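Project outcomes to date are best conveyed with an example. Our students and postdoctoral researchers have been running inverse folding experiments weekly, and each run begins with a structure described purely in tokens. The record below, which covers 225 residues, was selected by the lab manager from last quarter's runs and is presented without edits.
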């Protein structure tokens, strides 16, 4: 059986080491524990160790387990790290504290509408498709800075940072460097980049949050809904 609590401790130790090696303070990097596909009973041991920031890929899946968990632990911060469809904007705004996958005009408009209706303002990141992969969500990096500006000026959204998922078969370093450059040009401070296989590299390139799942929870049960 996977000891997620022990794995979490080891990941945190590696994050602390990576920040020291990068000449940064450990508190400069937040760990988002990616709990997608895992049920509540697999997440609870990690919550009980003190972890409070979690990431989910799908709105519908998150609705099935997180309302009760958040009610029991009011300081939990939940991130949407998977693609958002505009018809799920209402549910996303109601449940998530951070939406990391704003990547097109339609989503920006839908989020702005729902935030105004609900009086709830989750923090927002723009997802950038640094590898220009057709199958992957995210805005073209050549359009990212202008899109951040439109989110602010047209939709009245506050964009906190940028997020990326590099191609699995490429060195992630250049993708992380590109995201950091775009963030500076766009005037945003946060960088969500790095996953289980490359989060230490991401920290070296300036990540302010890393999204780690399998290194904590083990291999994913892809049959989960």
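After processing, the design step wrote out the following sequence:
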């Amino acid at each position: 059986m996977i000891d997620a609590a022990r794995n979490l401790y080891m990941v945190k130790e590696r994050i602390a080491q990576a920040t020291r090696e990068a000449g940064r303070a450990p508190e400069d990097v937040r760990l988002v524990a990616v709990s997608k596909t895992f049920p509540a009973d697999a997440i609870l041991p990690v919550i009980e160790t003190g972890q409070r920031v979690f990431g989910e890929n799908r709105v519908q899946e998150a609705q099935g387990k997180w309302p009760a968990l958040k009610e029991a632990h009011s300081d939990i911060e939940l991130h949407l790290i998977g693609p958002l469809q505009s018809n799920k904007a209402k549910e996303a705004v109601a449940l998530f504290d951070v939406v990391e996958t704003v990547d097109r005009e339609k989503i920006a408009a839908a989020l702005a509408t729902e935030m105004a209706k609900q009086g709830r303002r989750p923090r927002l990141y723009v997802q950038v498709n640094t590898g220009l992969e057709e199958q992957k969500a995210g805005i073209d990096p050549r359009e990212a800075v202008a899109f951040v500006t439109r989110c602010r000026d047209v939709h009245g959204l506050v964009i906190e940072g940028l997020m990326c998922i590099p191609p699995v078969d490429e060195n992630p370093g250049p993708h992380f460097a590109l995201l950091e450059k775009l963030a500076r040009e766009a005037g945003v401070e946060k960088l969500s980049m790095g996953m289980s296989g490359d989060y230490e590299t991401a920290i070296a390139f300036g990540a302010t949050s890393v999204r780690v799942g399998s290194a904590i929870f083990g291999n994913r049960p892809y049959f989960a809904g």
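The mean pLDDT is 95. The first helix runs from residue 4 to 21. The training component of this project remains on track.
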